[in-house]
Every structure is written in C-alpha cells, then in structure tokens.
Amino acid sequence: MDPKRVRARTALLVPLLLLLTGCSREDIPNFGWPHAITPQGQRALDLWKGSSVAGLVVMIAVYGLMFWAAWAYRKRDDVVPAQVGYNLPVEVLYTVIPTIIVAFLFYFTARDESYIDKLDAKPDCTVNIVGFQWAWQYNYTDCGTATGLSIIGRPGRTAAEGGELSHLILPEGKVIRFVETSPDVIHSWWVPDLLFKRDVVPGRQNTFQVDSIKAGTYKGRCAELCGEFHSRMLFTLTVAPQSEFDAMIAAAKADTTSGRYTVNGSNQ
Ligand SMILES: [Cu+2]
Question: How far is the CA of 91 from the centre of ligand 1 (A)?
C-alpha cells in the first residue's frame, strides 16, 4: 500500500481507538467506575484507583526502560557488542521488585476484602434476596416496621403476561445485611452502583453487608447467565430516608390487590 495512505489511515485510527472507548471526562478520576454509594463501595473504588495508578507507574517505568535501552544501545558502527550470558544484579532486581509490588497489592486487597466481607452481629435491617428463574423476591426477615413484608417479582416477558420487575426499598444510612438464596440455579445479584456483586447459589446462603447506603434510585440486574430469560431479571433499588421508607413500607403492606406484596407469606 502507498505509504501516504498508510500514514493517513494510522492518523485516523489512533484517535478513533482512543475516543471510541466511550469514556467521558468525568470517568477519568475513577478510572471508569461510578461513584460509590456505600462505605464498602468506597473501599473497592479506592483499591481500584490505587491498583490502576500502580499499573500506570509500572507501565511508564517498563516502557521508559525499553525505549531508553533501544535508544542508548542502538547500532552506531559495525563493532560487535560485548557478548554476556547473564547479569546477576539486574536479574536479582527484576525478581525482587515485582515480588515487592505483588506483596503490596496483596496486602491492600486482603485488607479491603476482609472489610467488605465483614458482618455486624446486629445489623439494622436484614433482607433475604431470593433469585429464581427469572425474577427476584425480597423478604424483610428482620427490618423494623418492614419485618414480614415480601416484595414479589414475577417472571414474564411483559406486564400483560403477568411479568413484574421487583422493586426493593431500603432505608438510608442503615447497616443492611443481605442473605441470598436460590431455589433453582446460580444467579448473581448486582447493583452496579454498589460496586459489588455476589452470586446467589442454590443450597447455600450467601451474605454480605453495607454499612449505609446513600439515598437514590439505582438499577440492578442478574449478572450470572441463568437461563432463557436471564436478561429480564432486572430490578430497581430505591434508598430513602427512614420516614419516607416507613411510609413506602406502610403503603406496600396496605396493598392487598396488586399482587406485588405479601405479609408473612399471605396477601393479608
Ligand atoms: Cu438470574
């Protein structure tokens, strides 16, 4: 191909590669992650940012050394350079430095993982998440005025078919424990804004906790391919101040006709 055309194509492709990754300026400080809405999410975000910066530093050092070596030792004449089999100090250095880097990353990962997996003996609210083919149900097993209430999602492609996306409501600023169970296959309960997801596994109870959640409405989905209508396992999470939460729960408990709720397993 004509070298001019190659240059023109490269000049077009390089900026396209950079720009078409879909990042905006706001994504840069968090390296593409959303803002955290829980202390656990903040920990994960800080770990992600720290690891990304560490990766960038290593990249700059490695490419810097490579280009420096290529430039400093480029061919200047026809004299054959000194032929060496090994260089012990350099080899020790490039074994020791990566070991130190990995030890650092391991320390911070282990520290943050044990914080994110921590469970309080007495959370403010415990919710049982049931993931089934292909919807979610939420049972407030121990959660103040909400205790006994279940929010029922129903599988179905459309509302006309009887499908109902579930809508979980939680109080703002409270310690919340999630207990996940599944009657059929593995699902994964994921609210991207929580910066966290955990699999829902049949035959066992998976738990996790958030120390507080910022008020807002967040989208959620199933993150484990679980069958034909996996893509329809969408849900909404609304986090509201305690008084609003109590009012929403009271309205849900009073709703005996929509089929979206049950109290202690019945439609009242
Ligand atoms: Cu699923």
Answer: 49
Write down how long the chain is.
268
CA of 233 to the centre of ligand 1 (A): 6
- Phi and psi at residue 259, to the nearest 5°: 80, 5
Q: How far is the CA of 266 from the centre of ligand 1 (A)?
A: 25
Going from the N-terminus, what domains does the chain have, and what CATH number goes with each? 15-116 (1.10.287.90), 125-263 (2.60.40.420)
Could you tell me the two tokens for 171? 């109080």
Token match 């391991």: residue? 106
> Are 36 and 45 contacting, i.e. CB atoms less than 8 angstroms apart?
yes
Strand, coil or helix: 192: helix
Residue pointed to by tokens 């209430």: 149
Ligand 1 centroid to 21 CA: how many Å?
Answer: 28
pLDDT in tens, 183-202: 999 999 999 999 999 999 99
Distance (Å) from CA 86 to ligand 1 centroid = 54
Q: What is the pTM of this model?
A: 0.84
- Give distance in angstroms: CA of 259 to centre of ligand 1: 22
19 C-alpha to center of ligand 1: Å? 33
Determine the distance separating the centroid of ligand 1 and the alpha carbon of 159, expressed in angstroms.
19
- Lookup: tokens for 200: 């829902």
Q: Ligand 1 center to residue 231 CA distance, Å? A: 8
Q: What angle do CA 140, 268, 252 make, to 5 degrees?
A: 50
- Rounded to whole angstroms, how far apart are CA atoms 178 and 126? 6
Helices (H), the chain: 3-19, 39-72, 88-116, 242-254
pLDDT tens, position by position, 198-233: 999 999 999 999 999 999 999 999 999 999 999 989
